Amino acid sequence: MEENHTESHAYFMREAIRLAREGMRSKEGGPFGAVVVKDGKIIGRGNNRVASTNDPTAHAEVVAIREACKNLGSFQLDGCIIYTSCEPCPMCLGAIYWARPEKFFYACTREDAAAIDFDDEFIYKELSLPLTERKIPAKPLLRNEALPVFEEWRVMEDKVVY
Amino acid sequence: MEENHTESHAYFMREAIRLAREGMRSKEGGPFGAVVVKDGKIIGRGNNRVASTNDPTAHAEVVAIREACKNLGSFQLDGCIIYTSCEPCPMCLGAIYWARPEKFFYACTREDAAAIDFDDEFIYKELSLPLTERKIPAKPLLRNEALPVFEEWRVMEDKVVY
Question: Is B3 helix (H, G, I), strand (E, B) or coil?
Fold first, then answer.
């Protein structure tokens, strides 16, 4: 009987790890890789490309999600599974929530990432602090002028909700 | 004396709000806008483009940060200020932390966004939960096979740290 790798979680995670290693060795960015899978097929691949593309948002998961959504022609990853070589940072976890896949698998942890000097754990801690106590200051301004835009959205009839 | 709008925080926030309104009205996406400013000049503009580009990561702040970094030729926004028409969602706040601007201003709050049915507040709550208790399940897999990639990164000598 022929072995069917396409349904194996380990098979897809190994592809994510391979992308992490190759992207790192080719100097595209940090040691992170991810794939998005739907119906047993890879529909999006990503590796970290922050340094090579001067894009701080080009994390493996974001790159893979953008590619998968482009291939699906949708901003939602219904029924998809994401495999990432490291627990997502807050930015990537936010992206996962907006894309709404079914679930995700991760290999290394945020603590493993912190141990090689990535800020994931630091950013998780910052996000849990009140706006006024964070390292990057955040200040309110002109809420009264921005709220009418939200009200216009609320009553708009033919909007695409996401 | 001529009024110098370029140094006015309100001036830049009004541009972010204008982008939010225009992007919404032109059906590019939700009612959100953002600008990145350096030395009194706008170097990046963004509005939400999730629906029109099928990209769940195309939030106003992410679009503005990517454009600003492209213009600067850097993945860091040293000395920059971000003006966003709404308090950043966790994804965008993560992106801000990775880009490391000096500070940011926001107009509407995450509660205002929740009031018009955006998931910002929901995602903030999810991120603070342990991985095992979240709505989108996350499962560990093959950490032992991914850790050697991190170790290879740790001892690499000519890497670009970000």
Answer: coil
pLDDT digits over A3-12, tens only?
Answer: 455 469 999 9
Nearest Cβ partner of B57 from A17, A95, A108? A95
How far does A46 lie from chain B, in Å, by closest CA?
14
Annotate B69-105 with b (16+ C-beta within 10 A) or e (fewer).
Answer: beebeebbbeebbbbbbbbbbbbbbbbbbbbbbeebb
Binding-face residues of A in 85-144 toward B, CB within 8 A: 85-87, 89-109, 112-113, 115-117, 119, 122-124, 126-128, 131, 136-143
Binary contact (A123, B153; C-beta < 8 A): no
How far, in Å, are A33, A136, A146, B5 from residue B15 at the CA level? 37, 22, 11, 11
Q: What are phi and psi of B42, to 5 degrees?
A: -75, 120
pTM: 0.95
Q: Which two tokens stand for residue A145?
A: 């002028």
Interface test with A, best of B75, B78, B158 (most A CBs within 10 A): B75
Q: Which residue of B has its CA nearest to A26?
A: B159
Closest C-alpha among A72, A118, A73 to residue A91: A118
Chain segment A110-144, per-residue pLDDT in tens: 999 999 999 898 999 999 899 889 999 999 999 99
Complex confidence, ipTM? 0.94
pLDDT, position A4: 52
CB pair distance less than 8 Å for B146 and A69? no
